[in-house]
Amino acid sequence: MDTNKIFKQWMESGNFARTPGFGKHANESFTVVIPPPNITGKLHMGHALNDAIQDAIIRRARMQGYQTRWVLGTDHAGIATQTKVDKHLAEQGINRREIGREKFIEACQEWRREYGTTIVNQIKEMGCSVDYDRENFTMSDEFSKAVRKLFVDWYHNGLIYRGKRIVNWCPHCTTAIADDEAEYEDEHGHLWYMKYPIEDSNDYVMVATTRPETMLGDTGIAVSPKDKRYKDLVGKNVILPLVDRKIPVFEDFYVDAEFGTGCVKVTPAHDPNDYQMGVRHDLPRINIFDETAHVVEGYGKYTGMSALQAREAIVADFEELGLLDHIEDLDHSVMHCYRCHTTLEPWESEQWFVDVDELKPQAFEVVDNGEIKFFPERWKNVYKDWLENLKDWCISRQLWWGHQIPMYYCDECGWQDASVEKVETCPKCGAKVRQDEDVLDTWFSSQLWPFATQGWAEGELTEHYPTQVLSTARDIMGLWVARMVMASMYCTDQIPFEHVLIHPTVMGADGKPMSKSRGNGVDPIDLIENYGADAMRFGLLTQVTGAQAMRFDYQKIEQARNFANKIKNASKFVLMNIEGDVPAEPEPKTTADRWILSRLSGLVQRLDKAYSTYEFSEVTRELYSFIWNEFCDWYIEFSKTDKNPSVLVYVLTQSLKLLHPIMPFITEEIYQELPNKETNFLMMAPWPDVSFEDAEAEASINVVCGVVGAVRSIRARYGLSPKQKLDIAVNTNDDLSVELLDNQAAFIKKLANVGDMQVGVGLDKPDQSSVSIAGNLEIYIILTGLVDFEKEKARLNKELKAAQKDEAMFSKKLSNPGFLNNAKPEIIEKDKAKLANLQDTIERLNSQIAELG
Questions:
Q1: Which candidate, 609, 694, 622, places its Cα nearest to that of 655?
Q2: Per-residue pLDDT tens over the stretch 220-277
């Protein structure tokens, strides 16, 4: 299959752009915005899953007749791109600070032109039907204008302010990092117990700290008001060792009397909780570190030391002074930069903030009243919890690559203001002005994505707003989803999307996050090359069950590839059996014809229901079951004895339509070979809306399939030739089943090569017969003279003994801690699968031996 040729034809058709509607949805729009991938990125399994989900949604909507558009774009990814370009320049011996801001931004733009389109090309390889001709970028001129407009609006309306606060500071990237972007890593650390002398006393206060280096900035000691041990100390001062600073002892309910000594050293400039205590008790804030986390001037020998060096020196000096009591081991979580993984420093600095209190109420309301729905529904509470705990948002970053904050300052007269348009001279005194050097947090621009891509900045917000579905990962619920809701409600007075689908995180086969270091990562492009895009898409969607995470399973991709081959072979059979013109509508003649059309009707209803709640595992299961089992295995089998081209072509065509949103390439390829095509491309064919329900036909064929399947199973079990006629007896518990079986007896005999067939209610099991159960039917296959029962029992017992031996071996292996700790995850999974298969085999063999008596 030439997927490149098919994709090129799709592109040239223009159907990836906003399509004209048709049918009952002709005047309704359906828009999805892709979560913009970073220009630094390449397709990973999370992208592959989410893009498969979104493409299935948009392709189905297109076939339903909506005016559809899937908005494409990429994110400039401020800190990620700057880190990449910094590294790229360093490899050439170039330092960013030496070449200056302007040339560095040029280098970033050049890097984007060279590498930034990689992920878009990979999205094409998946067959995604996004609007490639109108690709957006979060730093395009149009988008940048929207970003500036929002900043200016919020600034002038008092929602944006500048102030000194504790932020998470990365000493390596030298920028503030949002709370949500900080990554916590478990580390083995220590708790240092240090003595602070009490003023005018020979006694001391003992504090316990994980960060002794910050004591240089201590401005108080806090104790719990409930802690009676320290009542006499409250109001007194202690003398801070090494710097000889007098600091007060005070009470605060933040203190946990049970942790450490119950006395807490308070460093307002280097801990967010200490900062709050400092505000409550009017403590001075002393910043002891510079932007690279080195001790500032004024601290003697400690000045110029890194945080770690200062820690070691301070601990040594406390020990030398007899002020270090003891050290305890402590495992704790430490915040790291999500890009460079440097330990973050709580650091007081002047930053820009958004006052979120005015934005939160509407963001709550539209979720509470159901205007925005979450799938699965439990994520609604996660969203609300995040919003409830949201504090003012630090939006400034000390980077060069990004949206430079549109604030302008006149150093001559003190004028300052925000402006959408660039300001060169002061409107008050005519002097030259300077622009704020910081850039905006990447998420500040990303929050505009749904409406800035659709004309908001120009005052021409499209009539296709709001969008219908946002599919995204759970880890950016707060960083992105909630902020888009707040921004959209403020800027447009509309919700940004109607439905939020939170897809599972794709984990490695071992259940752990995919990573190079673990060796459990999977490259989607490798999957496409080895299995095909269709198989990857279908295999991934089979695992979207509503759970928070899914283990990647190669077997699912292999099964999907086999499914694609099955469909191709079935289509060959259908095409080979077309003679002359085929009616556009089916003309059922037999019970089997009516049965497959009725099953098709039920399939459409079940798929529509599953799509309405984004249950993709159900969608794929229903498609697989109908196409593989009912159409390919049964109806095509029926057709070999009595073919009806009109029904064959119709059911195949409708099946291709139903499968197309998930497996677009193979369905398009087969569709092009079929007669009676309604449209040039399958993506524009109408979604099936069929009504052929026939309960009687379904009941009749159900008994046929049950009996024929049972006979074939017994043939396979005992190695009996398909040419060997078999006599059977069918026992049931109701007269209706007897009537159905009598009506279909000739059909059953023909399909299963049955000789005598006895049917009745309350029949006894004949001697030397094998039994199979199908619903309320007991099917007895008479084996007299066909099977040597004693010889068969001996063979089965031999197989059973071998299976039990292997089962014991694998059970022992999988209970060995050494094997479980050292073997690769995929090896362990394979052995577990082998053990499960052996246990099934043992159960089956025991059942067969018991049956033989």
A1: 622
A2: 999 999 999 999 999 999 999 999 999 999 999 999 988 889 999 999 999 989 999 9
The CA distance from 844 to 853, in Å, is 15
Contact in structure between 569 and 666 (CB atoms under 8 Å): no
Percent of the chain scoring above 70 in pLDDT: 100
Helix (H) or strand (E) holding 705: helix 695-718
Q: Are 59 and 129 in contact (CB under 8 A)?
A: yes
Q: For residue 784, give the 3-state DSSP assignment.
A: coil
Average pLDDT in the chain: 93
pLDDT digits (tens, 9 = 90+) for 179-222: 777 888 888 899 999 999 999 999 999 999 999 999 999 999 99
- 3-class secondary structure per residue, 591-612: HHHHHHHHHHHHHHHHHHHHHH
Ramachandran area for residue 753 (φ above 0: left; ψ -120 to 50: alpha; else beta): left
Q: Which stretch of DSSP H or E encloses residue 33? A: strand 29-33
How is 363-423 classified by DSSP, letter by letter? HHHHHHTTSSEEESTTHHHHHHHHHHTPPPEE-EES-SSS-B--EEE-TTT--EEE-SS--
Q: Rounded to whole angstroms, how far apart are CA atoms 822 and 187?
A: 23
What does the pLDDT read at residue 462?
83
Q: Which residues of 406-421 are buried (b: 16+ CB within 10 A; e: fewer)?
A: bbbebeeeebebbbbe
HSE (side-chain half, CA atoms, 13 Å) at 67: 12
The rounded distance, in Å, linking the Cα atoms of 596 and 632 is 11
pLDDT higher than 70, residue 16? yes
Span 655-691, pLDDT tens digits:
999 999 999 999 999 999 999 899 999 999 999 999 9
Quick one: which of 767, 772, 796 has its CA closest to 782? 767
CB burial readout 141-177, b (16+ within 10 A) else e: eebbbbbbbbbbebbeeebbebeebbbbbbbebebbb
> Secondary structure of the chain: what % helix, strand, coil (to 5)?
45, 20, 35
**Angle at alpha carbon of residue 281, lines to 278 and 286, rounded to 5°:** 35
Give the pLDDT band of residue 846 (cuts 50, 70, 90): confident
Residue 527, pLDDT above cutoff 70: yes
- Tell me how far CA of residue 700 lies from CA of 605, 703, 704, 744, in angstroms: 21, 6, 7, 7
For residue 726, the cross-strand partners are 754
